[in-house]
Amino acid sequence: MADPKGFLTTKRENAKHRPVFLRLKDWREVYEESTTAEFRAEAGQKQAGRCMDCGIPFCHQGCPLGNLIPEWNTLVWREDWKRAADRLHATNNFPEFTGTLCPAPCESACVLGINDDPVSIKRVEVSIVDRAWDEGWITPQVPATRTGKRVAVVGSGPAGLAAAQQLSRAGHDVVVFERADAVGGLLRYGIPEFKMEKARLDRRLAQMRAEGTEFRTGVDVGVDVTAAQLRAEFDAVVLAGGATAWRDLPIPGRELAGVHQAMEYLPPANRVAAGTLDRSPIHAEGKHVVVIGGGDTGADCVGTAHRQGAASVTQLEIMPKPPEARADANPWPTYPLLYRVTSAHEEGGERVYSVSTTEFVGDAGGAVRALRLAEVELVDGRFTPVAGSEREIPADLVTLAMGFVGPEKGALLADLGVDLDPRGNVARGQDFQTSVDGVFTAGDMGRGQSLIVWAIAEGRSAAAGVDAYLTQRSVLPRPIEPTDRPLV
Ligand SMILES: Cc1cc2nc3c(=O)[nH]c(=O)nc-3n(C[C@H](O)[C@H](O)[C@H](O)COP(=O)(O)OP(=O)(O)OC[C@H]3O[C@@H](n4cnc5c(N)ncnc54)[C@H](O)[C@@H]3O)c2cc1C
Ligand code: SF4
C-alpha cells in the first residue's frame, strides 16, 4: 500500500494549467508542469500516496487497459519510479497519450471517489512516463527472434500503433500504412498541440522504428495499394482506419462559404502548429466562430479558434446542460455524465445548451454571416423546437463537430469484402477477426467513434488475435473482448 494515511492527509490536486493569457499566445500543452519534470514527479508522488490499495480495485474495471493502478501508485509512493514505469508499460504501450488525453474512467471508478475526490490517477500516470523518458528507461524492445510472418496494419492512429508495436515485439515483420503524410491518426491531425504536443508521439514512433516497425505514409490502401496486393504480400491484415466518416448537418445554407466540418478545420491548424504550414486556409482571426457540437472535437475547435484570435466563440449543444453532480441514475462507479470545463472552455467563449440550428444565413457574396437557432425540448423522445424561440446569432465561421457515423465505406472495405455490423462498423468476432480469414480490425473502425484508451486496448487485443492466428499460440495480453463496453 502507498501512504496508509495519504487519503486523509493529502487533498487531490489537479494538474495546473498555464495562465490563459500566456497559453493563448502559443500552441504548447496547457499544463504548467510539462516544463518542470521534478515538480511533476514530486506532486505525482504525493498524489499517488492517496491510493488506498482497495481489496477490490474498481479502477481496474474502469480502465479498459486494466492498468495496474494501485501497484504503480505504491511504487511511486516508495519512489521506485523505474518499477512503476515497468508496471505501467506492462498494460499500456503509450501512457503519455492516455496520461494527457484520457477522460480517466478509472478515476470515476476510484473507491475514494464515493465520498471524497478520487486519486488523480491520470496525473500519476503521466508523471511516471515523463520520468521514464527523462531517465532514459524507455528504450526499443527488439525481439530476440523473428518469425518471418508479415503483417499489414492499415491506419496509424492509437489502435494501429498499439497493434503494430505488440506484433513487432512478437517478432513479426510489420508495415503500417497511412494515407496522410504523417503517422499518428487523430493524435497527429485531429487533437491539437495544446492538448498533446506531437513531440510525445514522435519519440514513440522513433522507438517503434528502432524495434523494426516500418511506416509507409501517403498510401491510401484500397486505392494506391489494392486489397488483393495487400493479401498477397502479407500473412495477416489489421484494419485500423478509424471512424472518419463525419456526421453532416443538411439544413438550408449548408453550402455557404465558411461552414466547415471540424476535421476540415483542425488538421491545417495542427500543421501550422507543427511548422509545416504558414497559415491555415480556414482561419478564425477576427471572426465570430460558432462550433456546433459539445464534445471533445467541439472543444478542440474552441481552443483552436481562441488561439487564432477569434472575435467571439460560441459552442452549441442540442442536449441540456449536464448536472454538476452525479444523477441518481448514474451512480458510482459508472462514468459520470457531468458538466465539464475543459482547458479550452477555461479560455473563454459561450456555451449554449438545448438549442438546434435551423439555418445558416448567407451574405450577398455567398458566405455565412449568421446562424438561426431555436431552443428545443424533449417531446416523445424527440428534440422539438420551442415555438417563438428562434433567433439569429452572428457567425462568420461555423465548424460542425457532431460526431462520426463510422468508417468510410470505400474501396478498401468493399474489395476486402468484410461484413459490417448493424451500426455500419466493421464487424468482428472472436479475437477481433473480421468475416474474412486473416483480416482483423481494431479501434474506431470496429467499435465506432470512441476513445484513445479503447483504441490502444483494442490494438493490443487484436495483436494477440493476429499472433495466435499466425503462430497457433500467443502470449500477448488481451485486455478486452470485442463485446466489452464502458461502465456507463
Ligand atoms: C478532434 C478530436 C479530438 C479527440 N480528442 C480525444 C481526447 O481528448 N481523448 C480521447 O480519448 N479521445 C479523443 N478523440 C477520439 C480519439 O482520437 C479516437 O477514438 C482514436 O484516435 C481512434 O483511434 P483509431 O486508431 O481507431 O483511429 P484514428 O486515430 O482515426 O486513425 C485512423 C487512421 O487510419 C487512416 N486511414 C483510414 N483509412 C485508410 C486507408 N484506406 N489507407 C491508409 N490509411 C487509412 C486515417 O488517415 C487515420 O490516420 C478525439 C477525436 C477527435 C476527432
Ligand atoms: S488509461 Fe485512462 S482509464 Fe486507464 S489508468 Fe490511464 S487515465 Fe485511467
Automatic annotation (TrEMBL):
<keyword id="KW-0408">Iron</keyword>
<comment type="pathway">
    <text>Amino-acid biosynthesis.</text>
</comment>
<feature type="domain" description="Dihydroprymidine dehydrogenase">
    <location>
        <begin position="35"/>
        <end position="136"/>
    </location>
</feature>
<dbReference type="InterPro" id="IPR006005">
    <property type="entry name" value="Glut_synth_ssu1"/>
</dbReference>
<keyword id="KW-0314">Glutamate biosynthesis</keyword>
<dbReference type="GO" id="GO:0016639">
    <property type="term" value="F:oxidoreductase activity, acting on the CH-NH2 group of donors, NAD or NADP as acceptor"/>
</dbReference>
<keyword id="KW-0479">Metal-binding</keyword>
<dbReference type="Pfam" id="PF07992">
    <property type="entry name" value="Pyr_redox_2"/>
</dbReference>
<dbReference type="GO" id="GO:0006537">
    <property type="term" value="P:glutamate biosynthetic process"/>
</dbReference>
<dbReference type="InterPro" id="IPR051394">
    <property type="entry name" value="Glutamate_Synthase"/>
</dbReference>
<dbReference type="GO" id="GO:0046872">
    <property type="term" value="F:metal ion binding"/>
</dbReference>
<dbReference type="Pfam" id="PF14691">
    <property type="entry name" value="Fer4_20"/>
</dbReference>
<dbReference type="GO" id="GO:0051536">
    <property type="term" value="F:iron-sulfur cluster binding"/>
</dbReference>
<dbReference type="InterPro" id="IPR009051">
    <property type="entry name" value="Helical_ferredxn"/>
</dbReference>
<keyword id="KW-0411">Iron-sulfur</keyword>
<dbReference type="InterPro" id="IPR036188">
    <property type="entry name" value="FAD/NAD-bd_sf"/>
</dbReference>
<dbReference type="InterPro" id="IPR028261">
    <property type="entry name" value="DPD_II"/>
</dbReference>
<feature type="domain" description="FAD/NAD(P)-binding">
    <location>
        <begin position="150"/>
        <end position="459"/>
    </location>
</feature>
<keyword id="KW-0560">Oxidoreductase</keyword>
<protein>
    <submittedName>
        <fullName>Glutamate synthase (NADPH/NADH) small chain</fullName>
    </submittedName>
</protein>
<dbReference type="InterPro" id="IPR023753">
    <property type="entry name" value="FAD/NAD-binding_dom"/>
</dbReference>
<keyword id="KW-0028">Amino-acid biosynthesis</keyword>
